[in-house]
Amino acid sequence: MQTRRTLRGSSARNFKSGLSLWLILWLVVMKPGGVAPCPRLCVCYPTPMTVSCQSQNLTIVPAGVPYDSQRVFLQNNRITELRADSFGFETQVLWLYGNNITWIEAGAFSNLRVLEELDLGDNPSLRHLEGGAFRGLEKLQSLHMHRCKLATLPHDIFHKLYSLQFLYLQENQLHFLQDDLFSDLVNLTHLFLHGNRIRALSENVFRGLVNLDRLLLHDNRIRQVNRRAFRDLGRLTILYLFNNSLAELPGQAMKDTQGIQFLRLNDNPWSCGCEARALWEWFRDARISSSELMCTSPSQRRGQDLRFLRELDFALCPLPDPGSLAGSTTTTFSTKTRWWFSKHKPASSSKALYQKSSESVKSFPFSAVKPQFVPKTPTESLSSKYELSEHEAALPKVDPEEYWTNYGNEDSSIRCYELECPPNYDNPAFSSSSSLPITPSFLHFLCLSMVTLSLHFIFG
C-alpha cells in the first residue's frame, strides 16, 4: 500500500515537472514574438501584426519593420524612394499615400508575394514608373495611383497582375493609353481613369478586360472612340464619358456593351447630323439609365436631345457604311440621287408638325429614278407615323434592296452636282429633253450643208 502511494506521488511530481518544462519552453519561444522590436516613431499592434508609422515626417522607409507584419501604414510622410527589400514577406496591406515618392525601383515589391492592397495615391512627384515596378504582385487585388501626375504608363506596368480587381488612375496627366495596356487584368472589375488628358480610345485599348463592371472616363479630352474600343466589355454595367470633347460616338461601340445599365454622356459637343444616326438607333433599342445628349450642331437642332430626334430627321442620310473604321456613315450617293436632291431640296423639317402613331413609315432617299410628284391635297389622309409636309411627301420611297441595286450607279448625262449647278439648271432650256434629237443622219446632213456653203463662197 505504501509502495502504491509512493508511485502515485512520484507520477504527480513528474507530471508537474513536465508541465513546468513545457511552460518554460512556450515562454522562451513566444517571448521574442510578443516583444519584437517596433521601428522608432512607429506603433505596433498584434493579431494581425500591424506597424503604423503614419504622419511622422519620415524620409525613408524605417528599418526594422517585423518580417511578419501583415499591415504596414506609412502614409502622410515625406518618403522619396522605394527600394527593393524594404518590406517584409507577409505584408498584405501597404499604404504609402501622401508622400513625396519620386522613384520606385524595379522589383521594389517583389518579395511581397501575398500583398493584396497597395496605395500609392497622392504622390504628386511620382511622374514616371519603371516597367517592373509591380513585378511579383500576382495576388494584388487593389492598386491606388490617383493624383500622382503620371504622364505615361509603361506597356508592361500591369504585367501578370492577374488578381487585380480595382485600379485607381484618376486625376493624373495621362495623354494616351497604349494598346493592350490592361490585357493581363482579366479579373479587373473597376477602372477609374477620369480627370486625365486622354484624347482617343483605340481599338485595343481595353482588350482583355472581360470582367470589367465600371469604367469611368469622364473629365478627359476624348474626341474619338474607335468602333471596336469596347468589344471586350460585355459585362460592363456603368460607363461615364461625360465632360469630354465627343462630337460623335459609333453605334457599334455601344452595341458591344451588352450589359450596360448606367450611361453618362452629357456635357459633350454632340453633332446631330447623319453621323449621329447609328447612336440614335442604338438608343431606340437600349433600356438603360442615360443622361441627356444635347446637340450643338447643326444649328436647327441645337439644344435638342439626340435621343429624342425623329426618324425623318435622318431621312436624307445615307445608310451606314459597314466598312467604316470610325463606325460612321458613308456619304456616297449615286449621281442621279445627288442631282435629284439638289433640285428638290425639302424645306426644314423643323417647320413641320409630326404626330406619333402606332404605325411606321420609313423614307429611303436613295432611288436613282426621278420620282413622280403627287401633290398633297387638304383632304388627303396618310396612315403613317408622321403627318408629312408637301415636300416630305414628295421624297422618294424605296426599299433598301433597291438602294443597293443602284448604289454607285453614275450617269454621265448628269453634268453638275448640287451647288455646282447653274441658277437656271431647272429651266427647260438646260434640259436634254427639250433639245433637238441628234441622230447620225442629222449630223451627216449638217456636214454636207456646211461643205456646200464653203464651196459656194470660195468659187463664187
Automatic annotation (TrEMBL):
It is found in: Cell membrane; Cell projection; Membrane raft; Membrane. The keyword Glycoprotein applies. InterPro entries: Cys-rich_flank_reg_C, Leu-rich_rpt, Leu-rich_rpt_typical-subtyp, LRR_dom_sf, LRR_TM_domain-containing, LRRNT. Residues 37-71 form the LRRNT domain. Its main location: membrane. Pfam families: LRR_8. Residues 268-318 form the LRRCT domain. GO terms for cellular component: cell projection; membrane raft; perikaryon; plasma membrane. Coiled coil: none annotated. Keywords: Cell membrane, Cell projection, Glycoprotein, Leucine-rich repeat, Lipoprotein, Membrane, Receptor, Repeat, Signal. Transmembrane segments: none annotated. It is a lipid-anchor. Belongs to the Nogo receptor family. This is Reticulon 4 receptor-like 2b.
